[in-house]
Every structure is written in structure tokens, then in C-alpha cells.
Amino acid sequence: MTTTPRLTKPQHARALLVLGLPLIGSHLAQMMLHVTDTVMLGWYGVVELASVVLGASLFFIIFILGSGFGQAVMPMVAQALGRGDEVQVRRDARMGLWLSIGFGVMTYPVFWWSEALLLALGQQPDVSAMAQDYLRIAGLGMIPALLVMALKSYLAAVEKTQVVLWITVAAVALNAGINYALIFGNWGAPEMGVRGAAIASVFTQAVTFVALAFYAHWQPDLRRFNLFQRFWRPDWQAMGQVYRIGWPIGLTGLAEGGLFQASAIMMGWIGTMELAAHGIALEVTALAFMVHLGLSNAATVRVGRAMGQGDAQSLRDGALVAFMLSMGFGVAMVVLFLALPAQIVALFLDKANPETAAIIAFGTTLLALSALFQMVDATQVMALGFLRGMQDTKVPMVLACLSYWVIGIPVSYILAFPMGLGGPGLWLGLTVGLTVAAVLLLLRFRSRAPKVV
């Protein structure tokens, strides 16, 4: 058992916020990388924008699946630190990096031959060809992108999150500058269009990895872990452990991401205006979700530390405080979405567009509905964070897949089409799926959390 003084609830809250606020900021900055690409290619051309949106979606789906190995580093390193096992810290983090490299190498052929895949999925030939041009370059960035995820998880587990924030913010600025030069041919650079955007992404990911790796290796407090010492030597036992924890995390993320991708596809069946409003409402909801995700990451670290120390009381106290912080922010978002939905949607639109009024009206309805699932969405991601801190990932994966795909998607379809509720029906179905996930995952945590004696 731990011999360190037990924290009070306010001390738990402070520890969570010190760890979580930079993670929230880094998640928001990460979103800005995507926004920057979208805005700049929107300036360049419609076909180019469509091709990169399509290509980036494929890249993101594969990235989410592979990022589970990097994300597994967070709870594993946190538990090892809780036990005082610094050798295991290095073993787990290094094998998370190894698995990330292996996944990136294995998936690159998908990007090289992506045109045939996109055509088989019914996409337009010109858009598919240009998306392949983009992905043949951007796919090279899968390895550094996954390595960045693993290093971010490692640094979060050792509670060095400030550097993660500032390096991510710098990456946004770097990506925007290279995009401006290579997409449009500014500053004497060649005009490369989508290829320029791909080069910018790969270069930004590579520089981000180098910066994080340099910090992880040379920062005085972290040198004792010798993260890259004899990096070339395999550690099959640690690799197996990271794989066991990591692949369910990747599939869980894929299941949740797929839920919203499927909702966008079905909204497209209803109409273009409805799809535009859907995209705006999801973007706003995603921004709010980043706060819960950052708190969930911080909770994973705190729960992992308590688990490693064998301190059941601290584990439960920390989880309760994290949950209450997330719920407090969720309540604020519910009030905001119900009080100012039209004003929020209007921020994304050109007032001169004749369709703006209709999009605002429909988006207002969707934002009001999103207020319904703010609390359950927060609950499910917080429960996932707690369970990952305990290295419980397989059963939560099953519960997430059941909630999102066996319940959420079918209910969305039934409410939207056979029952004739349209777009609001789709969002009610999302709420049902997220609610089921929240209940099941919270019950799982309550049943698995160590008892206080």
C-alpha cells in the first residue's frame, strides 16, 4: 500500500486540472490542424478540398485504429510509476513506440492503392484520383503521427503535459505556414495543391515527433528513464502487454468515430442543407468534447497511479472528482446550447448566402438535441478513462461496440427514416447509443474498482 499522504477532494481537483488543462489545450490545437487544412484548401479549389477531406477521413480512420498502442502507454506507465518500477516505464513506452512503427509500415499500402478503394466505395473518379495523390504522400506521416501519440501518452503519464500543449500549438503554426507556401506557391515555393498540403502534414508530424522525443530524452527529470537506451532491442513480453491493452482501445475509438461518420452519411441521404447544419453542430459538440477528453486522459493517469500504489480510496476519490468536474462543464454546455443555439450556428455561416437562414434553423434544432447527450457523452468518455487507468480495455470495447453499432446506429436509422423524424431522429439515436454506453461503462467501473477497506 502507498505511504504517501492521502489527498483531499480539492487537492484531487487541483492535480487533475494541472494535468488536464494542458491536455485539453493540446486536443483543441490538434483540431486546429484539421481546420487549417480545410480552410486553406477551401480557398484553393472545390475538387481539391473534397479530395483532401476524403483522404484525410481515410487517414483518420486508420490512425484511430493504430493509436490504441500509443494510448495504452498512458495507463501502463502511470501504473508502473505508482509501483515505483522505473524500468517498466521504459519497457512499456518503448514497445508502444515499436508497435506504432509496425502499424504504420503495415498500413501504408492502403494509402498507395487508395484510389481503387475509394472508387469501390462509390466516390467520384476525379476526387478519388486526387485523394490518392494526397494519401501517397500523407500516408508517410502515419508513423510519426502514431509516434507522437505514444510520446504524448508517455509525457502525460509522467505528468509533463505543458510541453505537449506548446509543441502542439507550434505545430499548428508550422503547418499553416508550410500550407501557405506549398499549396499556393507563395514565398517562391512551387505551387503543389493537395500534394503541398500532404507534404506540410508529413513535415509537421515529423518535426513534432522530433521535438517531443528530444524533450523526453533530455529533460532532466526524465533522463533517469533512459527512454531510447538500446531502442533497437525488442522486448517481447512488454510488447505483448502493450498490444493486449492497446488493440481494444483502438477498436473502441474506431467504433465511436464510426458512429458519427455513419450519422453524417445518413444525414447526407436527407439533404445537403441538413448535412451542412449537421457538420456545424458536430464541430461545436466536438469542441466541447475536447474538454471532457482532456479530463478523461488526466483521470486515466491519476487512476493508474493510484492503482499502481494499491490505494483504493485515492482511486475512487480521484475518479469522483474527475467525474464531477466533467459534469460541471457539461451543465455549462447544456445551458449554452439551449440559450444561444442560433448565434453559435451563425458563426460558421456567410449571412449573404440564401441558404443560411434554413441552415441556422435546422442547426438550432440539432444543437438543442446535442444538449440532451452532453452529460451522457461526458459520462461515457470519463468512464472509459477510469477503466483504462485500471488497464481494463477488452470488455469496455465490447460494450462500446454494442452501444454504438448494435443500438445507436439502428435506432438512428429507424427514427430518421421508417418513423419519419429525419435529422432530429438521427440525433436522438445518437443520444440513445451514447446513453447506453454511459450506463454500461459506468457500471463496469463501479464493479471493477477496488473496494475501500
TrEMBL record:
It comes from the Bacteria. GO terms for cellular component: plasma membrane. It is a multi-pass membrane protein. Keywords: Antiport, Cell membrane, Ion transport, Membrane, Transmembrane, Transmembrane helix, Transport. Its main location: membrane. The keyword Heme does not apply. The chain crosses the membrane at residues 12-29, 49-74, 95-114, 134-151, 163-184, 196-216, 249-270, 276-299, 320-344, 356-376, 397-419, 425-443. Coiled coil: none annotated. It holds the Pfam family MatE. One of its GO terms (biological process) is monoatomic ion transport. This is Multidrug-efflux transporter. It comes from Pseudorhodobacter antarcticus.
